[in-house]
What does this fold into?
Amino acid sequence: MPLSSFLDDYSEGAHPHILDKLCETNLSQQKPYGDDEYSDKAKEHLRDKLQSPDAAIYFVASGTLANIISIANCLRPHEAVISASSGHILVRETGAIEAIGHKIIVVDQENGKLTPKGIQDALHKNAHYPHMAKPRLVYLSNATEVGTLYTRAELTAVSLLCRQRGLLLFVDGARLGAALSAVKNDVTLPDLVRLTDLFWIGGTKVGMLLGEAIVINNKALAEDFSFHIKQRGGLLAKGRILGVQFLEMFRSNLYFELAKHANEMAQLLSSGLTGAGYKLDAETETNQVFAILPNALIAKLQNEFQFYVWEEVPGDKAVVRLVTSWATSKEQVAAFVKRLDG
Amino acid sequence: MPLSSFLDDYSEGAHPHILDKLCETNLSQQKPYGDDEYSDKAKEHLRDKLQSPDAAIYFVASGTLANIISIANCLRPHEAVISASSGHILVRETGAIEAIGHKIIVVDQENGKLTPKGIQDALHKNAHYPHMAKPRLVYLSNATEVGTLYTRAELTAVSLLCRQRGLLLFVDGARLGAALSAVKNDVTLPDLVRLTDLFWIGGTKVGMLLGEAIVINNKALAEDFSFHIKQRGGLLAKGRILGVQFLEMFRSNLYFELAKHANEMAQLLSSGLTGAGYKLDAETETNQVFAILPNALIAKLQNEFQFYVWEEVPGDKAVVRLVTSWATSKEQVAAFVKRLDG
Amino acid sequence: MPLSSFLDDYSEGAHPHILDKLCETNLSQQKPYGDDEYSDKAKEHLRDKLQSPDAAIYFVASGTLANIISIANCLRPHEAVISASSGHILVRETGAIEAIGHKIIVVDQENGKLTPKGIQDALHKNAHYPHMAKPRLVYLSNATEVGTLYTRAELTAVSLLCRQRGLLLFVDGARLGAALSAVKNDVTLPDLVRLTDLFWIGGTKVGMLLGEAIVINNKALAEDFSFHIKQRGGLLAKGRILGVQFLEMFRSNLYFELAKHANEMAQLLSSGLTGAGYKLDAETETNQVFAILPNALIAKLQNEFQFYVWEEVPGDKAVVRLVTSWATSKEQVAAFVKRLDG
Amino acid sequence: MPLSSFLDDYSEGAHPHILDKLCETNLSQQKPYGDDEYSDKAKEHLRDKLQSPDAAIYFVASGTLANIISIANCLRPHEAVISASSGHILVRETGAIEAIGHKIIVVDQENGKLTPKGIQDALHKNAHYPHMAKPRLVYLSNATEVGTLYTRAELTAVSLLCRQRGLLLFVDGARLGAALSAVKNDVTLPDLVRLTDLFWIGGTKVGMLLGEAIVINNKALAEDFSFHIKQRGGLLAKGRILGVQFLEMFRSNLYFELAKHANEMAQLLSSGLTGAGYKLDAETETNQVFAILPNALIAKLQNEFQFYVWEEVPGDKAVVRLVTSWATSKEQVAAFVKRLDG
It folds into this structure.
């Protein structure tokens, strides 16, 4: 019997409703390359939720493609990206942004987050023109790579600074669902429209087979966007498969419900861990739980469950990371918590 | 009622067996990024069909990504690609290859094909080193962009020249299924293994939702291939969705059956057209039919069918292109042919 | 004794006046990176000659750098260059433009020149958006790579088309001196300011050690230009050495006098050739002479002179190319002509 | 009267012997693009001094070009550079290395230097393949950007680690002359041949008009090097001007004498400063002096001398940087020291 996995939020396929719709629409003949009626309708629903009738929306197949395409569209060759040191583009995308020619200026992170102070320091240290690349775009992830959230106040402060200093603001939303559905969250999709130049809404990690939706709020950035999608290999012949999935996610609130479920399972897991007397290494804000467990217990748990051992801590213990998803069941969590007692 | 479409071979979703397997495997927890068990099994089946136990195989989401990643993997910055003037990378990929830094040296095509003579001329004209980029990789498509086939003898001649002149040979197989399943074809998958350095097997246009399989026969080219997939945005978190589809295609002969069906529908359409007294503009070798019809007839047909009007010809006529697919039914073809009689 | 060379116009160092000035100014302490007083003064003189008080002017070390930097500054990743098939960037710069990510759309040349018709055809054939790179900049060389000239009417027609179609016009002036000093020329520097978005004035081939001056007429293109110079390695620490040379060239009419001398030597050579009964393969418009000589004579001449044998022609003859420069003397030409008689 | 400048080591033109040779050789007709006899002879002399008869040597116009071309030649797209956080390519070249597609992995510096420990940490943190770019080349500068030296033992340790871990070692020698001529130095040119894969010898900052010599010790890296020079705009038509200068530098020991002079002037300045009772902020190892002076004194000195105020320090003082060069005279230093007394 396979181990139950808390490794990540992309271990399963898609939510069954998504598959149903793919089957249901399968034989209708549609225009290729994203000009199908499902993509059109999905964008209408999404614009409603964004409260932004004019937002330009594009669907692409992966998060790295969303980042490559968005940044390729925004920057000239001498312009650089500002990112937290934990930024996905910096540490987990194999130099994808440098491969399209752009320097990433690294800023120390605080709980996975960029701060106005960090951005200002980066601007100050990178002002020896023209011997330095010109900072032009601020990249941040919400939820962050370590599962934390930006508050509306934090995002507003970053956005304000960007506008004062002529910087574009771009948000990587690989786990935007988890962020917007978190208990502590006070950010909305319309906030993101208002505060950023462009951002993307991750589908893959919320319950789609694949697919991320790029939303462009700054009209000047929208004009030739589709060229970049095609040039970087992101234009699917059967764009319908992204359209159908996003349509199912956003014609109702399925997207948010699935994200909320994942967060709730993380809360349940957190409660189980603290209830059993173990400490968390970080507050559980979204769908990632970081807990400190004795190594002996970890070894025992690994007979039944898959998860990452994050780092050793003194006293023969370690931090483990447990990720929940739309597909995580209460039963899985309960089984895990039950084993904590020995 | 929507028009019946002969526009392309990617108007529908996927063959129902593919969808069934996606549904059936949906909830099993799998390793991400292509390390799932379905991808592993799919590659085993494919290696059997290739008769190449050691072939390195990678699945990616689109044909342009397959081309970008393969060429990025093979070339140093000063090395160039040789392509026919009709090559997809040259005329339909928005400068994707140049965007990763490589010149494409253009060779006149004959029926959409490269010839040894054309390649030799290109080598001769591009030998003024170091003032010219160094030809290093020959790119060709089979079936070609105009629906024609390379014979085994033609491919062998190109391959031999490449090896004599230190050139890599790379085959774009967006419609490889159509080629290998054509009546006139004498090329096999093991031939491609033997004759090329790398090639890819198109899934999208044969009946998958998406997915292309890159096969690397030259071991020296395989070592770091996965870095390029990730760097160019081609590594899907849920790589399983490509694995499941290719597994279904190649555990049996589904891939070839679907391609054969498309070719047969094209033959049926051809026979219907010639039977009704109309001329073809080119022999129907795969799943594309080029026919010459009176403009009045074209206008009438367009009330019920979608297809491209390719070019005007004298006598108030035009060439039309009709593409069939795995999903084209005999009924659709019959309905079209019936309308030819007026 | 070394052979007298008609191979090219960069076989010698610099005109003695240039060297004198380098020596004379050598020990003055100057700001680096082009902010020296010689560069400033050189630009003042040049702006006078351009009749363009606001032109942004930058000096770089080589023609390929001038092309790389100018094009990198002008284009976004999905935008392409239109060039004649004889364009230097296309056939003699080792894929430098593709290496910075841009496709070059090739147009058939007429006497080395682009025509409005050729450009229009290229636009027409490259309009299948977003599957094709977007034509955005027209590149042409004056004098052309085969030594011919654009007339003012021809340049005006190209410029007009560019403005109508939203294309930038960029002129490679590696041999602009030869062009502007040709007997048949009717183009002026102010014409180039008026008709192009940017162009460069070649120094190397007219009599400097090295150095090309990029002139930007379109203000929108000037803002961040210096970043590109630095990023591509074109910003010399001792920018003064370019400044001093251009100052010497343009504080008087030395630049034009040297170019005129080279053209006159070519005319003298032409006259000598036709006077001796030999035919030219092309009219001698600038400082390149193409003549048809018997192979036996060529072999004899090669005992004393260096030049390129361009191509064989029937009747045991060949076209030879003879290039003159600021340093070519009447004596050299006379010695060559004398040998024509046997 | 202009201020006497200690701003940098490239405020003047070239050493008079260099100019003499440029004048003397000016009219000889030479092959272009570096195939001239002066370049050939310069390379012979240099190979003698390197004690490396087979070293491949190339001359280019600027340090940034030397870095761009060398790294473009060495790396595939997914491969990254390791650099100290003070590395010139990282902080003063406008993203030039990223612009050709490569990530730079940053390592904390110690006195401007990379250590084996730092490199090992970088390897450890960048091993999550294929989600991270693959470290492949170690870049360091000697002298460093802050004027310090690598000892032979330090370079040997870095070299050994590189070979154990499959990394190339590349040394930026913009100020290699200053390093090799320093009192404390124990590294030789043959050491660099033995310990590195490639390195370059800076000419500009030692007394040439311009020019850097790239030395390739690893034969596998030499084969197609000249393509990269041309592709990046670094191939001068009149390559002779680099050849003549390097010939003059290396046919005798002029290169080392000029560097030694600059270092001696820095020592003289240091002694003057400490003799007058002021503290140095760092030991003076090469031709850069960092001293702590009262702000009032700084203000007074600025009436006669140009230099950079580096950073404020408590007590109404600041660190100033004073750079000497081949052209700095004892009189200039004496005049400066004299003013220290008030």
In short: Chain D is about 40% helix and 20% strand.
